[in-house]
Amino acid sequence: MGLSSVASFMQERLLAALASQRSAVDYLEIRLEQSEATAVAFRGRRLEAIDRSFDLAGGIRACHRGGWSFVTFNNLDELQSRVAEAVSQAKLVGDESTELAAVEPVTATVRVALGRDPRGVSLAHKRELLEHYNRLLLEADPRIQTTATSLSDRLRTVWFVNSTGTILEQERLDVTGRFGVIARDGSTIRQGFESVHSRTDFDALVGIEERVLGAAGRALRQLEAKPIPAGTYQVVLDPYLAGVFIHEAFGHLSEADFIYENPRMQQLLERGRPIAISALNVVDDGTVTGQPGTIAYDDEGVPTRRKYLIKDGVLTERLHNRETAGKLGEAPTGNARALGGTYPPLVRMTNTGILAGDTSFEQMIADIDEGVYAVRMLGGQTNGEMFTFAAAEGFMIRNGKIAEPVSDITLTGNVFQTLTDIEAIGSDQVWLSGGCGKGGQSPLPVAVGGPHLRLRNVVIGGR
Ligand SMILES: [Zn+2]
């Protein structure tokens, strides 16, 4: 049996199951995911995992009078009865009205433009490659205590049909290398991390020794750095930290399910409201080529597009699934995403970032007498409009130049204040891969993007 006949077989099964119940509820969809994955992992010198898995499973969502149900299945023979179950459950909960934004029905097939297919690379070879990188890290310096490294790849095909006429088949490949180290000197312990991601090609993981060693370099430089004195500083964020800041502190607030449930945020996040310096542009863009958050159609069959969350400093759009768009009377954005076939779609980001401005890095630091250059992120948390981020690495800026490394850089602030405290936007925007967590679905592949960003009045809590 060839691939195409399998595909049409799957779609026919889903369409038949849908047809039996489509008029029983206001809305009905079936999503089926087939995935083939491998993963190899080391912890220190120990091989921790070497797995190959093959999965076929899916989920059914029904909506009736505003009430939703979600039922999973892992056997096509039980599909009819699972669909009936989803229908009766939705009818039990619904007592209002179903308001889904209208979307043009679409029939489409999306294929991966494969480079070197990871399915053609043996597990033994993947293990050898990872062992090589892992050993490089372990032997980089006597102060490296241990590592946590992995190579993984996952090729998925998702079939989707719904009661408004959309029929999709979408392939997706994720090839990922993750490299973490822990370095120690006396009682001081530091972490370093690097990740590499491709949507098309296993060879993205080959010949990346320098990037892998970057994880060790960051941890070792932090070991030698002195803790920064607490205070208020002028701060330059590197593109990665700027991107993570906009994802964590602002992107999640832009998710309309959050806004819909939060009256204070409905006021603060009113469209048309100036909320940042006028030079700031922030997008969520599922169309960027080859990034982790790039999709053709979301998990409700809605086409993705570029959305300006902030355009010229003004709040412009927010992120929707069909229901939040329908309820708030706004255009759908194609931001309903699920971690896998057996998870319900939630309002999620795709590739979210700050667009380039016009200031070079040299210009940005040239007139800073004493400031901080904060690089990458180790961890962080947000609480409504408040955020706290720990930079992975940092340096003092003195008399317009990068000076000695400093550690323990924890940045705290209010996102709305920070958006108006931006002093300069770099001309050097890049996209970097990341993972996002929400509602127990983690890590969802996303990209964060940013240029360098200069901020005033940033509170840094030192040790
Ligand atoms: Zn997130």
UniProtKB/TrEMBL annotation:
Keyword Protease among record annotations: yes
A cellular component annotation (GO) from this entry: cytosol
Source superkingdom: Bacteria
Residues of the Metalloprotease TldD/E central domain: 117-211
Gene Ontology annotations of biological process type: proteolysis
Entries under InterPro entries matching the protein: Metalloprtase-TldD/E_C, Metalloprtase-TldD/E_cen_dom, Metalloprtase-TldD/E_N, Peptidase_U62_metallo, TldD, TldD/PmbA_N, TldD/PmbA_sf
One MF term in the entry's GO annotations: metallopeptidase activity
Metalloprotease TldD/E N-terminal domain residues: 29-90
Keyword Hydrolase found: yes
This protein's UniProt keywords: Hydrolase, Metalloprotease, Protease
Record-annotated Metalloprotease TldD/E C-terminal domain positions: 231-462
SUPFAM superfamilies: Putative modulator of DNA gyrase, PmbA/TldD (SSF111283)
Family, as annotated: Belongs to the peptidase U62 family.
Entries under PANTHER family matching the protein: METALLOPROTEASE SLR0863, UNCHARACTERIZED PROTEIN TLDD AND PMBA
Name used for this protein in its record: Peptidase U62 modulator of DNA gyrase
Protein's organism: Gloeobacter kilaueensis (strain ATCC BAA-2537 / CCAP 1431/1 / ULC 316 / JS1)
